[in-house]
Write a structure and sequence with these properties.
It contains 12 helices and 10 strands. The chain is α/β, with parallel strands linked by helices. The protein binds 2-O-methyl-1,6-di-O-phosphono-D-mannitol.
């Protein structure tokens, strides 16, 4: 393992005002997204949509890495350039989702554990050949009356750490994503407690598995009220609670933290990131790895129609630019109404 190189890839993904475009929707998830715009989820439509967002002019100034799904890393632009090569040529690090999804955790009703470790060493070697220099694995933690259990947190953290160790062995930067879901009516305080417990379990397992912290990227949820909560915490409270949790659990050796958006609107996700970066100095790069919060406006502008291709690219560019400004702590909500 060349740790110096892993560290510089992690910084290329999250440093210098850049963040990550999470475009690794699995086939069932991208179908759900396309259903909302009455577009059929054919292989060509998926390819064309991914081409639209990846090739948006100027986006490479703000996007340091793109997470792809297995199908996408085997696809190419309309001119025949493999997507991974297209990205590297423009300075965006190609990445790949390698987990195979969250499945019910036997014996623990309502809880899930992420699968995908079997054969992972061989799959990573193939993805490296295809150009991937980072990978992603997402653990899903549900909040409920009696959940998450400590067992569930440990099982997911153990799998994340085994995955991360295999990635580093293959000279691929692991994004470790322990996502505490927003679903539910819980308070921000409950989200903070669960996020703290999830991060505690994760860093314990990463240490036990001898994963080098300098060579990974953490992709956490923000500490935020449940989506059905009555009294919603303000943006400043979200920023303060999230930083409190991260500062208590994430060692300074971690080069970059890149948030997921988790169901926040595009504007909320940007505002929260901007506020946190205004509360610095921080020991790590604090950036974004948004799926919905980067793509939803682009998907909506495109609606599966070729004549909207440029509008879709403009919408993606706008979100990438505003999130980059938020990364620099220079975002103001008034910028939303300014032209892209
Ligand atoms: C883009 O969506 C990713 C893949 O999801 P599925 O495996 O369920 O299809 C997802 O892991 C995503 O990268 C993260 O949840 C962050 O996306 P959001 O939309 O929460 O920012």
């Amino acid at each position: 393992m060349n740790l110096k190189e892993l560290n510089s890839v992690a910084l290329a993904m999250t440093g210098n005002g850049k963040g990550i475009l999470a475009a690794d929707e699995s086939s069932p998830t991208i179908k759900k997204r396309f259903d909302t715009i009455d577009t059929e989820s054919t292989e060509e439509n998926r390819r064309r949509y991914r081409e639209m967002i990846i090739t948006a002019a100027g986006a490479e100034d703000y996007i340091g890495g793109v997470i792809m799904f297995d199908e996408t890393i085997r696809q190419a632009t309309s001119d025949g350039v493999p997507f991974a090569k297209y990205m590297s040529d423009r300075g965006m690090v190609p990445g790949i989702k390698v987990d195979t999804g969250a499945k019910p955790l036997a014996g623990f009703p309502g809880e899930v554990v992420t699968e995908g470790l079997d054969g992972l060493r061989d799959r990573l070697a193939e993805y490296y050949e295809l150009g991937a220099r980072f990978a992603k694995w997402r653990a899903v933690i549900n909040i409920g009356d009696d959940i998450p259990s400590d067992f569930c947190l440990q099982a997911n953290a153990h799998a994340l750490a085994r995955y991360a160790a295999l990635c580093q062995e293959a000279q691929i930067v692991p994004i470790v994503e322990p996502e505490v879901l927003m679903d539910g009516a819980h308070s921000i305080g409950r989200c903070e407690d669960v996020t703290n417990a999830a991060l505690d379990a994760l860093f314990g397992q990463l240490a036990a598995h001898r994963v080098a912290l300098e060579g990974l990227v953490l992709k956490p949820n923000m500490v935020i009220s449940g989506s059905d909560a009555q009294d919603r915490a303000s943006p400043t409270e979200v920023a303060e609670a999230t930083l409190r949790s991260l500062k208590a659990h994430v060692p300074a050796e971690v080069p970059g933290i890149a948030f997921l958006s988790g169901g926040q609107t595009a504007e909320e996700a940007t505002e929260h990131l901007g506020l946190m970066n205004q509360m610095g100095p921080l020991p790590w790069e604090l950036s974004f790895s948004y799926g919905r919060a980067l793509q939803a406006p682009a998907l909506d502008a495109w609606r599966g129609k070729e004549e909207n291709y440029g509008a879709g690219q403009a919408a993606l560019y706008k979100r990438a630019k505003l999130n980059s400004l938020a990364h620099f702590g220079k975002y103001e909500t008034s910028m939303e109404s300014e032209a892209a």
